[in-house]
Design a protein that fits this description.
single chain; 282 residues; alpha/beta; Rossmann fold; 2 domains; binds adenosine-5'-triphosphate; P-loop_NTPase
Length: 282
């Protein structure tokens, strides 16, 4: 669906992208995870034809992003990082304007507003909405023309957990219906929950790219947290799954009915990010 090859972009002396490569399959949710300044917005802007790279090839649905804009524009949805809604217009008029521009079905306005719990605000001027509400309107706007691929730049940054969760639910539903999604985030929980694959972006380079589970398994240190009943008390123990004595203890506790719970100790994506890049995911 998307292929990116040797993408480079500098702003004066500052190298924002230092030759990145990745492919996204149709139907995937692919995330670019990185701290501030990693190059996430530059990547999204190039992929959506808003910024010209210095070098590299970007193809979406097999077409070059820059020479096939007319073909790609109706097939791509973009939720930008910055709010660019018309503040004095109502939600309805903002969305109507976009519907006309993209020849989208007006009925989609209500359908998607309902999905993010914003239908009751349809006649409210955008300037009266909270930041989180504006984010939701930006998402609704990006979906009106029913794109095949959706680009989201930090879709839930600064949102309260309930608003973020409603956006996550909608994205998961749309993805189940076939939508391909590329999102950027520095929120590792969001990325962990949503993504089929994740690229760690750091200082303009991709330092790891894999499924979230594979990233975690490759960095797991083979330990489990065990909760066991000993002499009537619950005790928590961290055990090495590769040691014979741990295997013996655990199987004995299971037989004796003393094992209350057992969990693998996987590192978080934030810990893996630090491990790989040496930088915090802030
Ligand atoms: N218009 C610009 N002029 C100069 N430098 C820029 C410009 N846009 C981005 N940069 C620099 O390029 C680097 C990458 O920026 P970019 O916005 O792509 O990162 P990001 O990962 O999206 O960061 P954030 O999470 O803060 O949005 C940063 O060092 C940034 O300061």
């Amino acid at each position: 669906m998307i292929s990116v090859e040797n993408l480079k972009k500098s702003y004066g002396q500052k190298i924002a992208l230092n030759g990145i490569d990745f492919n996204i399959e149709r139907g995937e949710i692919f995330s670019l995870l990185g701290p501030n300044g990693a190059g996430k917005t530059s990547t999204i802007k190039i992929l959506t034809g808003q910024l010209i790279p210095d070098e590299g090839i970007v193809k979406i649905m097999g077409r070059d992003v820059f020479s096939s804009r007319n073909f790609l524009r109706p097939r791509m949805g973009v939720m930008p990082e910055e709010n660019n809604l018309y503040e004095r217009l109502t939600v309805r008029n903002n969305l109507k304007f976009f519907c006309r521009l993209y020849e989208a079905d007006f009925e989609n306005m209500e359908k998607y507003l309902e999905a993010v719990g914003m239908l009751s605000e349809i006649d409210t001027p955008v300037k009266k909405l909270s930041r989180g509400m504006k984010q939701k309107i930006l998402l609704v706007r990006s979906l009106l023309h029913e794109p095949e691929v959706l680009f989201l730049d930090e879709p839930t940054s600064g949102l309260d957990p309930a608003s973020a969760a409603s956006i996550h639910r909608l994205l998961e539903k749309l993805n189940e219906e076939g939508l391909t999604i590329l999102l950027t985030s520095h929120d590792m929980e969001e990325v962990d929950r949503l993504s089929d694959r994740i690229a760690f972006l750091h200082d303009g380079s991709i330092s790891a790219l894999d499924h979230p589970t594979s990233l975690k398994l490759n960095h797991a240190e083979g330990q489990v947290d065990v909760l066991v009943r000993i002499n009537g008390d619950l005790q928590e123990k961290r055990m090495d799954i590769n040691s014979d004595s741990a295997a013996e203890d655990i199987s004995r506790w299971i037989k004796e009915g003393k094992l209350a719970s057992i969990h693998s100790c996987e590192p978080s994506l934030a810990e893996i990010f630090v491990d790989i890049t040496g930088s915090e995911l802030k």
